[in-house]
Amino acid sequence: MKKIIMISAAIAALCGFSYANSFEEDINSANGSQEVVVPQPRMENASEASEKDLAAFYEYFDNMMKTREVSGEADFDFDKSGEMTKASVLYNIDLEAIRNEYLKSPITFKTSKGTVVYVSGSKSSNCPDLSNSCKDKEKFFMVLTTSGGQTFFIRAMEIINWSIFMNGSKTVVIDGEKYVAKVHANASDPEKSKLEIKGPRGAVISSSLDKLGEALAAKGVDVKLSKAYKLAYGNEIMQTGKGNAKFTESKLLLLIPFPVVDSSSYFLIKADDIKPAGTAFPSMEPGYSFKLDEGKLQISKL
Questions:
Q1: Using CA atoms, how far apart are residues 158 and 137, in angstroms rounded to an integer?
Q2: CA 99, CA 272: separation in Å to the nearest integer?
Q3: DSSP strand pairing (116-123 vs 108-110)
Q4: Whole-model pTM?
Q5: Of 168, 246, 269, 298, which residue has the fewest beta carbons closer than 10 angstroms?
Q6: How many CA atoms lie within 13 A of 159 on its CB side?
């Protein structure tokens, strides 16, 4: 089963914090133009069978957001004899050039004024109640990034529609036009669940979750170590309550084995854990050194 390539808790929306007025400013007030209406999903008396089907959909939602955080170890580039090893540099990547670019997916629509809106997804570092103890599905956001520099976060659990039991949506205003986002859950085949966005002239987006995942993966940078990866880099997203979120200054890297097998193989690295002198991640890729200095990532084989 294909999984959405979600950058994790810590990887933030691709428009980047350079588009926001400040990191401390809630995204809900970005550029003073976002209007949000959040009808909460409504649960009614579901049968036991219906609850079982919905649980299967929730499990899929949870699994497609999982990542594995890895910790680094100091890398002194010495072999067992104490002699310096000669590291072979494989990649020099300007991370600032790709920061948050993974969210500018090829799934787009335009407003009547010609503004391009990129549709993507990401994951916050915390929970709706601002704690750190919740299922991964509670951290999943649909992200709309405009060519004009705005970002709109839509918490996925608030827009789920399923049978007669759940009816959720969220409205954002772009260029003075209202766009309503919904996820139509498919309990029998969860990855075929549909993200739908309707504007003043009808539907502008109708995409299955697996297609959205494929589109996001395609935006990563190709990196070949012991296996092939897509590398993504971006700012952390933090929930601020009531379905809203903001960017933080923290940055993360996500290494996604590609082609995608399952989300348990995604590796999340805090950028601050990669030192200029070199850091090794033996639980992820033994025999490789990662160095990060002033936004430049160097990957070497030892």
A1: 11
A2: 15
A3: antiparallel
A4: 0.75
A5: 298
A6: 27
Q: Phi and psi at residue 157, in whole multiples of 5°? A: -65, -20
Q: Which amino acid is located at 222 in the chain?
A: D
The torsion angles phi and psi of 19, rounded to 5 degrees, stand at -85, -20
By residue count, the chain amounts to 302
User: Residue 208 corresponds to which tokens in the numbers above?
Assistant: 């299955």
Q: Which of 112, 241, 242 is nearest to 173 (CA)?
A: 112
Alpha-helical (H) ranges within 159-300 are 209-217
Between CA 118 and CA 104 the distance in angstroms is 5
pLDDT of 218-277, one tens digit each?
778 999 999 999 999 999 999 999 999 989 999 989 888 887 766 556 788 999 999 998
The DSSP annotation for 1-40 comes to --------TT---TT-GGGSS-TTS-GGGGGG----B-PP
263: helix, coil or strand? helix
Q: Would you give the DSSP letter of residue 188? A: S
